[in-house]
Structure formats: C-alpha cells, structure tokens
Amino acid sequence: MGVTIKDVARAAQVSVASVSRVLNGHATVTQETRDHILAVMKQLRYVPHEGARSLSTNLTNMVGVLLPDLYGEFFSEMIRGIDGAARLRGLHILVASLHGGAEEAAAAIRTMRGRVDGLIVMSPHVDADLLAQNLPEHLPVVLVNSGAGGGAYASVSIDNYSAAYAMVRHLAACGHRAIAFITGPADNHEALERLRGYRAALADLVPGAKEIVYEGDFSEQSGTRVGAALAKKRKRPDALFAANDMMAVGAQIALQQAGIAVPRDIALAGFDDIPVARYVTPALTTVRVPIAELGAQALARLTQRIGHADTGIDSTAATLDAQLVVRASSG
C-alpha cells in the first residue's frame, strides 16, 4: 500500500486533522507547521487521494472552462492565465470548445455537471437563461467578455468600447480621415462593442467622415478577404482598423502580396496584441488586452465563489483596462 495521511501525520508528529487542513488550504494552520508538513509529504512521496478528498470536502478541485475555440494565440493565452492561477490554488482545469450555436453550448455545459466545482464561460451563445436551464442552481459561474450576465453571474471583461474609441482617435491624430473597420462576428459582444466604439469615435473626431465597414469573423481568412478586396480598389481608405489582430494580419499579408505598402499606402491597426503582432513587418499598432490576466482574474473570482479565500477580490464583476500600443503599421 502507498503512504497514507496517517503515515504523514505520524512522521510529522502532528494530528491527522492538521495534515488534512494543510491539504485543503485552511488558513488556521501556521506557516511553520504548513512548511513542516509539506516537507514530510515530499520526503515520504505522499500523493493526496483526490477521490477521497472530494468526498470529504464535497469538491472535485476541478474547474470547467468553456471557450468558443481552442485554436489561436488569444485562446492559448487565455488558457495559460487560467491554468497558472488554478495551479497556484491546487486546482485542475477541464477545457472544452464551443464551435456551434446555443444547442451545442447547452450540451457542453451539461457534460460539466457533477465533474467541476465551477465554470468559466466565454461564448456568444451563452446567456443567463441557458445557464439556468442546464446547470445546478448553486454552481458558481464566471462569464468572460460577455454582455449576457445581466448581474445574475459574476463576470470579467475588457472595456472594448473605450479601447476602440482610443484607436480611432490615434488614427485620426495621424492624419487619417477615411478610416475603415473590419467587424467581428455579428453575435459577439466584444465585436459589437468595438464596432460601437469605432462608430462613436468617427462621428465625434472626424466630422463628416463616412463609415466604411467590412464584415469579418475574427479569423485571419476574413481579414485576408478584406485586404484582397481593398487591393483591387483604385481608391482605398487611409487606414484600416480590424476588430482583432488575426484579421489585421490577414489583411496585411493580402495587401503586401498585392504590392500595397503598409503604412505608406494604407495604415493598419488591430486589437488584442497577440504575440505575433509585434513580429510582423511592419509591426502592428494594436490595443493590448491583458489576455492571460483576463483568464487569471476569472479563475480568482470563480474560486472565491466556490469558497477558496481570495481576499480583496470583488467576486461579482471586473472590467480590465486595455492599452493602446503604437507601432509602425499606423504611420
């Protein structure tokens, strides 16, 4: 048989209850005692039995994460932030992607029941009603970048409107007047807020300028299509602002392949500041979203609602600031 919690208690010369409190992260144990017990566990190569621990605490120590996709730098950064914050708290994550509509989202949510202590959800298809219909009433949930919570669920989001407004202000300050915009998906809250910020800034800061809006879906391919279409036009906008970096990179590649120089012939800007944004040539002007921090904040709020102590954290809602990052592509 392997090493048991009783063996650890005996070797550390403490009670079984003290070892249990260390395993479950109780604050009533002094740091000296905690360090001593952890050192004995390491020496004995003790591995906690998660099943037994779950029975005693009624927790699985597993957190569910539902994202629209698992592909791309944005979502890998998001998962990195969630996973890092989870490991600091001794938790594991169970990740699933939601490629379809509301029906698939509901099915994915139902598969999490009984397997996780709480859920982090980022999906345009998930609202308060869908969650209420498919989850136990008291399961903690944190929504990320969603306008669907309506106060019923905790949320973490970015001020997409103000950040898009700031980008248009920057492009206008560079002398650009005909500023075009590539949208994100029509059912995506973030995309709609960025479009709203673009429209408001254009009306306020470039009086008389017409909106030039192209449809996109956050994919590099949709940006490539817009870039290729612009390359064929005799008269092009002064600047192109894409609702995310992947579309901006796609547009940049298409324009450059057609012999159109960025920013000499057309300025370019994106949103998110994914790692590749600084490595394309010219480097991409963008809005820096603290993606990993967004994930970490969501996990922190979720664990507080589950019952883990995260003092000083508002468990209801948080809005993180985004930062304008000016690089060569905007001229």
From TrEMBL:
The keyword DNA-binding applies. Keywords: DNA-binding, Repressor, Transcription, Transcription regulation. GO terms for molecular function: DNA-binding transcription factor activity; transcription cis-regulatory region binding. SMART domains: HTH_LACI. CDD domains: HTH_LacI, PBP1_LacI_sugar_binding-like. It comes from the Bacteria. The keyword Zinc does not apply. InterPro entries: HTH_LacI (IPR000843), LacI/GalR-like_sensor (IPR046335), Lambda_DNA-bd_dom_sf (IPR010982), Peripla_BP_I (IPR028082). Residues 3-57 form the HTH lacI-type domain. This is LacI family transcriptional regulator.
